[in-house]
Amino acid sequence: MSRGRIAGLALLSYPAAARDARGEEMLATLHDVSAGSRRGFAREIADLMRLGLRTRATATASVGARRLIADGLCLAGIWLMTLDLTTLMAQRARGMHDPLLAPAPLVLLMVALAVALIGRDRVAGAAALAWTALRVPTLWDYHPGIVNLAPEVLPIVCFCVMVLAPRRRSTDLRRLAWLIVPATLVLTLGPPHGEQSPLLLAYVALGAILATAFALAMLPTDPRLAIAGAVALSTVGLSIVAHHHDVSAPACLFAAAAPLVLAATVARTRHLRRPARR
Q1: Is 73 in contact with 231 (CB distance < 8 Å)?
Q2: Which of 36, 44, 66, 159 could form a Cys-Cys staple with 128, CB 3.0–4.6 A?
Q3: What is the pLDDT, as a whole number, of residue 245?
């Protein structure tokens, strides 16, 4: 790979505005300083990426911890809708019959997810809250007690944030292509255990690993994806803790994921914004 190609890729670590304003100047300086030295070029590339990520993180933190957390919770709402829709559709595919699997609530959840994907968080959040209100009485019948409804707390919080503090996004129907994610999960998990495709299972597992690695890598720069993943993980952990008596250590760690990531987001954002206040 040529030096110009490597430098161009390193420049992507900067926000688009910075690249447009000073990209050519930074690349010219890089080539001048590192001319004739491979070690110097590698060192300058590392510095360029480090400063780019720092610039990107500072730009992201400029909106404040409250907005970052709200954006992360809105994204988490979409992830939780996907998780619930996938679980319920997979159960229907296995021939299960249950009031929670009734067609009308499932259609409402599908609509909420589709509307959220195209960029209408407020409408999607309201639809998701309506879907939650329809299922809570049935959940209470199956698992009486406030403690057993603990797994519903985080989704309700996320859906309320979608209504009260939606992300500012333009409507884009092309985002409906993301529906391939729940469709793939249903195709993978819907068949009985002995009939599930090993190839699809490996594909889903690889996707989950890559998404987790990317979210963790982005945490210092843009924590919104990590917040969404942590909230979904905490919801799963709370469900295990609430519905199973033999609580395991991983389940407790899962439940603690959201508080840990939210605390890290607040601390990191305050640290990045502090120099600008002096």
Answers
A1: yes
A2: 159
A3: 62
